[in-house]
Amino acid sequence: MLIRKYFSQFLVLLCLAAAAAAQAQNLPNVVILATGGTIAGTGATTTTTTVGYTAAKVGVDALIAAVPELKKVANVRGEQTMQIASENMNNDAWLKLAKRVNTLLAQSDVDGIVITHGTDTIEETAYFLDLVVKSKKPVVIVGAMRPSTAISADGPINLYNAVLLAGSKEAIGKGVLVTLNDQINAGREVTKTNTSTLDTFKTPELGFLGYIQGSKPFFYRQSTRKNTADTPFDIMNLDKLPQVDIVYGYANMNPIALNAFVAAGAQGIIHAGVGDGSLNNTVVPSLTEARKKGVVIVRASRVGQGIVARNGEADDDKLDFVVSDTLNAQKARILLMLALTKTTDTKEIQKMFWEY
């Protein structure tokens, strides 16, 4: 009787193990690449939320262990790609991250990628990857506005939603996505709009792509601009990116910063002008001279929304300048860097700004 009892228990355990294995086989395989940021931050107390914490302290294994529910939606494994606060993100880190993403997505046993990231530069990393990832498989960037030790940390649910999204069929072919606060945004269009609130990430005029509700993504629109596998930008053999700097427009501005960037070897300048990318008379001579030296000039706007009209506030055809379309200055910088790896022809670069 005792042998029969233990044998029955063994059979039950065997059936449970088989069921778990079958479930794991049916789940998508998602790799989490951790880069640091607030989502991996710690504070001195549970009420240390948006001020006074230290970013990039918690490793990827601990982040995954803190959300056991991930096992229900995907087969998850993690890699610590880097561990930095996102204000320290740079071109070298982008190239390293993008190469790893492309390598992983080329594998048949990887269905999607989640990247944990600090919120300060999420929008830039998202757009960079949107241009250089060579796969239609989902890539989702996620962060948090409160550190992992906060009494109401948003990191765990954001990470759960990101893994869910990265493993979903609905996200395939949508470009690089950013999800926080149960909302889905396009990497090209999203921007951080508030210094500290949980709903900081928005696409103010064009709107969210969709929402995550009840452990399911709902898409209502998608970006019409080419992305990922449909772009010409290949970074797998690149060791560095061209130097492109941003000059900010303001009342009573002077050309000191612009001239310094050009003297330091800038191959491109993004001029974040007032209004519709307007140029102060004090900087036009320096911009014109820089262009004669081969520096590509892109007129963007500090406003942050709307189209910068070609030949609107400046004679771009005569000056041989490029306009940023709807890209803000920080994203225009990214596209110009990548464009300069392909060409210095301003007509071709302008086409890229209208296409991507």
UniProtKB/TrEMBL annotation:
Residues 29-223 form the L-asparaginase N-terminal domain. Residues 243-353 form the Asparaginase/glutaminase C-terminal domain. PROSITE patterns: ASN_GLN_ASE_1, ASN_GLN_ASE_2, ASN_GLN_ASE_3. The active site is at T38 (o-isoaspartyl threonine intermediate), T38, T119. One of its GO terms (molecular function) is asparaginase activity. Keywords: Hydrolase, Signal. It holds the Pfam family Asparaginase_C. Gene3D superfamilies: 3.40.50.40, L-asparaginase, N-terminal domain. Substrate binds at S86, T119, D120. Residues 1-24 form the signal peptide. It comes from the Bacteria. GO terms for biological process: asparagine metabolic process. NCBIfam families: asnASE_II (TIGR00520). Belongs to the asparaginase 1 family. PANTHER family: 60 KDA LYSOPHOSPHOLIPASE, L-ASPARAGINASE. This is Glutaminase-asparaginase. It comes from Herbaspirillum frisingense.
